[in-house]
Amino acid sequence: MKQPTRYEITGKIKGIVEGKISRDSVDDWVNYYISHDDEIEMIDIEAWHYLTELGTMCVQIAPNEYLYTTDDLLNLVKEYT
Q: What CA–CA distance (Å, rounded) separates 32 from 5?
């Protein structure tokens, strides 16, 4: 299985920011890859770090409240693209 690309990861973040995708669904998507890391064909280690950082940014601390803000997500995009 190939790892998600930076482009795909950025698309998920943009989906969250634009309200088209829930953080919960993105968290599930990230966790799928992390839980299958032994099956991943690593092509871009920086993309892997991008993916794992996104996973931490989807942590919910209260109903409809997340540990990281939308601005934090956008900063993550800037860091990896």
A: 15
